[in-house]
Specification:
Blueprint (H helix, E strand, L loop, with lengths): L4 H29 L7 H10 L3 H4 L1 H13 L1 H10 L1 H23 L4 H28 L3 E2 L2 E2 L9 H25 L2 H28 L5 H8 L3 H5 L1 H18 L5 H21 L2 E3 L3 E2 H4 L3 H28 L4 E2 L2 E2 L2
Antiparallel strand pairs: 1-2, 3-4, 5-6
Helix pairs in contact: 1-4, 1-7, 1-8, 4-5, 6-7, 7-8, 8-9, 8-13, 9-12, 12-13
């Protein structure tokens, strides 16, 4: 029996993107909320909570983007051509954010400016990622093997909705991370933020979920037609249950459960996106098989990923294990 390597590569890329979203999502979320924290100890503590891991988190973005180029070059070319502006905006925002992260400690005389750059870069990166998602979901104009749309096709009310929704969801992830990693006043502020952001995130999920099936007839069939509705119905039900559990655990004063339940909600949303778009890599235009490179290239690259991916996973797990405790203004507690 021949193994379908295209499916395997699609899974690898989706997994890399998901891991990036949940890992870099919470530090982008902290950046989005950063200006609301008191200058001094609270901001230093929030920054220290992500200092040991934020660089490594972006490894998964490189893996996802590089894997898309290598395994699905046609899709990479079409997506980059259609979404050049928001992708460049995201990359520039990540650069500003990274520079600000380092320089706020080394240039205390201008720390306020670096804090603004860190917060602004985080917000722009989050919104840009959401706009890219929305623009892909609404479809890309393709003729033959080339992008046939215009410069501003990506900018629509739906892509702006997904952009704002992703920023809100990242802020929720960041607030629950601080609930788990900090103590005292900052933790209480993060808990209050998480309560309101949880409601806003649920509203954003509902808004995007209601709008998505009407973007494309295939989406509508995947979600609304009988009998496929029986297979997909558990996803919104599980999102609702996870949301109720989140609210209860947060109100009860739990520290880890709100963050883990937020991750569960993110995962369920990813499953929902997969149900909507499969088997397309460029929704409505190009399937994963049409965009895939040849089988020999897939095999060659799979050997490389098979060697490198376990190392990345072990290092990531080890880093989070070492820095698993509470954090203060001067770093992690011994």
């Amino acid at each position: 029996m021949t193994i379908d390597l295209t499916i395997i590569w699609a899974f690898i890329i989706v997994a890399a993107v998901f891991i990036y979203v949940v890992l870099d999502g919470f530090d982008l979320g902290i950046g989005i909320l950063f200006r609301s924290f008191a200058v001094g100890q609270d901001r230093d503590t929030a920054m220290n909570s992500i200092a040991p891991v934020w660089d490594g988190n972006e490894t998964w973005l490189v893996l996802g983007g590089g894997g898309l180029l290598a395994a699905f070059p046609l899709a990479y070319g079409l997506i980059l051509s259609a979404l050049y502006a928001p992708i460049i905006a995201m990359l520039l925002a990540l650069v500003f954010r990274g520079v600000a992260f380092e320089f706020r400690w080394r240039d205390p005389a201008h720390q306020g400016y670096w804090d603004l750059a860190f917060s602004g870069g985080s917000l722009l990166a989050a919104v840009s990622q959401g706009v890219v998602l929305g623009a892909l979901l609404q479809g890309v104009a393709v003729e033959g093997r080339a992008y046939a749309g215009g410069w501003w096709d990506w900018l629509t009310p739906f892509s702006l909705l997904t952009g704002v929704s992703v920023a809100i969801a990242y802020a929720l992830l960041g607030s629950t991370w601080l609930v788990m990693k900090t103590e005292g006043r900052l933790q209480q502020q993060a808990r209050t933020m998480a309560w309101w952001l949880g409601g806003a995130t649920l509203a954003a999920i509902v808004a995007v979920s209601v709008a998505t099936p009407f973007l494309n007839a295939a989406y509508f069939d995947n979600w609304m037609r009988w009998p496929t509705i029986l297979a997909v119905a558990p996803v919104p039900v599980l999102v609702a249950l996870a949301s109720v559990a989140f609210a209860r655990r947060l109100r009860a004063g739990h520290e880890r459960a709100p963050f883990l339940l937020t991750l569960a909600i993110f995962f369920l949303c990813f499953v929902g996106l997969g149900i909507s778009v499969f088997p397309y890599v460029v929704p409505g235009a190009v399937t994963i098989w049409a965009a895939a490179t040849d089988r020999s290239s897939q095999i060659f690259m799979l050997w490389g990923v098979g060697l490198v991916l376990p190392i990345i996973l072990v290092y990531t797990a080890w880093a989070y294990w070492v820095f698993r405790g509470k954090v203060g203004a001067h770093g992690y507690h011994a």
